[in-house]
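re the bet — no i am not wrong, look at it urself. input seq straight from the record:
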Amino acid sequence: MNRSQALFFAVVGTLLLASIGLAISYRSVWLTLLCSLVSILFIGIGFMFKAKARKKKG
């Protein structure tokens, strides 16, 4: 994974985690659950890309 991809996953992951806090502040249970699910999936996809890049590299 190159630096721009890593930066993309880090920034978007952070924004998704911040959206969970925003959903909690709005006291929206469904929005909180949705943001949590999307965050977990996106961070998991980032780890998958990192593992594939590491496997491909060496």
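see?? The mean pLDDT is 94. told u. also The two ends are 12 Å apart (CA to CA). so pay up
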